[in-house]
Each structure stands twice: as C-alpha cells, then as structure tokens.
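User: Predict the complex.
Assistant: Input components as received:
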Amino acid sequence: VPAVVPSICELVLAELPAVRLDREELERMLDADEEARIPSRKATTIIARVCKKLGIDPKVIKQADLKPEQLTSLHNLIDLLERRTAPLRKS
Amino acid sequence: VIAIERRSAAEAWVEAFRATKDEGAVINLITTWTTDEEHAGLESMLDSYMMAKGEWSVLTVANTIFADELYDRSLGSEALEQFCEWYLDGLAVSRRASPGGEYCERIVAWEGRDGEVVNQLLFVAERLRRYTDATEPHYNYSSVYEIGIEHPILDLRTHMPGQNLSLYAFPCLSHISLTTHGPELHLTALYRNQHLLAKAYGNYLGLTRLCSALCHHAGLEFGSVTVVATHADSQFGASGHPKGELVEWFDTASRLVEA
C-alpha cells in the first residue's frame, strides 16, 4: 500500500497555525475561491518549512518568484510550491 | 548639514525631501522623529510612484530591517524570540530575493568569530530588559546597546580586493545605536548613503518598527528615531525621476501628510 503523501495544499495549510495565521478562515477563503492574503515574510517562512518537510532545498524558489503579490496570495503561494517542487517530488 | 525634527517619520520624510530635492546630494542629512506613528497615505503614494518604476514597495524596504508582521505583540516577552525563529526559518527563501544579504540577517545572525552566529537583537533586547528590571537597580546603563551592520572586513572593499567589489552594493546602513534616557529608548542609525525616494521612507518605517518592538519587549517608551545619512541622494531629476513629474507628485504627497 503506497504511503499517503500530503498535497502541497495540505502542507501549506498545516503550517498556518504555527505562524499564527487563522487556518480555518484562510481555508474557507481558499475553498470559496476568495482572495486569501498572507503577510509576505510569513509566506517565506511557510515555504521554507514546507520545503524542509519535503526534503527539498528551498533554492528551488527563484528570485523572480518572490514578488510580494506572488507570495501574499495563498492561491499563488500553493501554486508556486506545486510548480517548483513537482520535478523533485516525482523523482 | 541639514537637520530636521518632526513628530512622525512621514513628516520627517516630507521635510527631508523638500530640503534636499534642489541640492541633488546632501552631506549629513539628519532626520529625527519622536513617535512611532505611520502614514498609510504616504506609503500608498510612494508605492504607486516607485513600483510603477520597478522599485521596491515601502513595506519590502522596511521588512529588510524589521518585518513587523513577524513580531506578535500578544506573545509578550516571547515575541522577539519568536520573531527570530520565524525570520531565520524563512531566511533560506528570502535570501533568494536579496542574495547580497539584508539588514535583518546581520541583526539576528551576525557572523561572529570562527563562524559563531551572534544574535545582536536578542543580546541588546536582554540588556534593555535588565535596564527596566526593578530587581536590578544598578543596571542603569544608557549606552551599551549597539547593533553593527557594516562588516569591517567583508565590506571594507578597498582593503579586500576580490570581495564585494560593487561599490554600490549592500549595505548602505552601517550601524544602529540605541540609547536609554529615563524611561525612553532612542534609536540612531547611520547610513553611508541613502536614496530619498527609493528607500528612505521604507528605512524610516523599518527602524521605527524595530525601536517600537524593543520598547515593547523591554517596557520602555518610544523616545525617538534619528537617521544620519552621511550622503543623501534626493533622486530629484535623476534618471527615471524627472523633475516635472516629481514636483506635482510631491506637492500632493506633502499636502496629504501635512494636512
């Protein structure tokens, strides 16, 4: 039986309480496709912690990825992590 | 020398720009403000103007000194330590945006002797708490709270051929000095160079937030923030900032702040 690998979305949501963001509220906004904003520096902390859990070097994130509008949207942040870590997660 | 003292960082910035814009560059621009009040209107106007030119937002600049969003006042005396933990966890990512380093990294993770990491922020914060600790009445030092930014070896470019050769590179902020005076905390920052349009207000906010967090941590009152820019570049009429465009923009910004 293959191990259940949590999705990037689940990993990101799991980090929200640790940086004192309201997971329930942000998750509800995500489900409703509403604009869920997070502070950019908390976003970098979340990215680093998710990469660590995946065993992936955070250097997969490029300089161009770190525009505030990219980081502060929870949708964009999850999408960014999906795209950048996908090749490494599959290997 | 131009010396300006105002109530808020926004008022100080407006006066600093007004006083320097026709000079181009000024030697020793000294600005002081005495409250931690912020002006969202000025921040918004600077963001609109600067970001349209591909420059950083005010918040991005401020966050390079002290990312206030990571300082959770509800955590009380633990807030500063939590700030450092969150900041350092995210550093591997945020460093991608500033490969040359950023001020906060030097403040909380200064590379000391033999690679030892020195957290200057927690070190100074602990001393400030002792200053306000009623059980330590003899710990009443006024001037033992220094935070170094400029690295005397790595950044001394003319003495280290082959290292850090870009003369315009990081860091522009050289040193932060904190002084207690009675129940107040005063912060002074020395810049070797400061761009008035692109960076100064963001610098002012970051320093104000740093001072405010240390006051909260140690139970001190906000005294003042002073910035000494030994070389201040107004950027008025510089490439990308035509005077005609700026005159109108600054007129609106100054009226907004001084209303």
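Chain A has a mean pLDDT of 89.
Let me know if you want any component modeled separately.
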